[in-house]
Amino acid sequence: MGLSIRAYTNLAETTETDVSYSASEDRTITFYSVGYTEVNFPGRTKGLKPDTPYKYDEELDFHAGSYSGYNRWRDLLARMAGYDSAEAVWSDTKPGPFTELINFSDCEGVIGPITAAKLARDFSEFADTARAFADTLGVEGEYWLSKFGEWRKVFEKTAGNGAVEFF
Q1: Cα(137)–Cα(126) distance, rounded to whole angstroms?
Q2: Strand, coil or helix: what is 38?
């Protein structure tokens, strides 16, 4: 168990409602957690409509870790970005690097294309800092940096026209 991530690229609204799993067929997805996300994390789904089916081109999956492991990773992300801790980000409403990810659910929700684009920029801008930070973590550093890379890839692929689903 833990946090799994599924990302969808090149979203386009559709009237089709059948979900196809064959790579040769069109694929559709409806993000039912848009309402939940907007109530708890306003603005994160910007660019998505609730209860609307979308076609997508590519689906990317990865396991973000156990819930406690993901929360440890997220806390280290916050520290790398200059915050005291992830918890400090949760209680502060000021925007900053990675705040939309650090202050987000660790179990469900969806991040839309506009927030994905902002996070893609954050991951790109902090790539060198992340490598240097990982070197300070000892054996934990390699794992932490590999997850940083997976998150970066997901947000780069979904920036501006995709979505990232947490489940």
Answers
A1: 16
A2: helix
DSSP 8-state secondary structure symbol assigned to residue 1 = -
Report residue 44 as tokens: 């994160």
Is pLDDT above 90 for 152? yes
Return the amino acid letter for 99.
Answer: T
- Boundaries of every domain in the chain: 3-166
85 vs 21, higher pLDDT: 85
What is the secondary structure of 60-80 as a DSSP string?
EEEEEE-HHHHHHHHHHHHHH
Summarize pLDDT for 6-38 with one digit per residue, the tens. 999 999 999 865 554 444 466 999 999 999 999
Q: With contact defined as beta carbons under 8 Å apart, do 135 and 129 qualify?
A: no
Cα separations (Å) of 86 from 23, 53, 103, 119?
38, 33, 7, 16
* Structure tokens given for 161: 């026209």
Give the DSSP H/E element, type plus range, for residue 29: strand 27-30
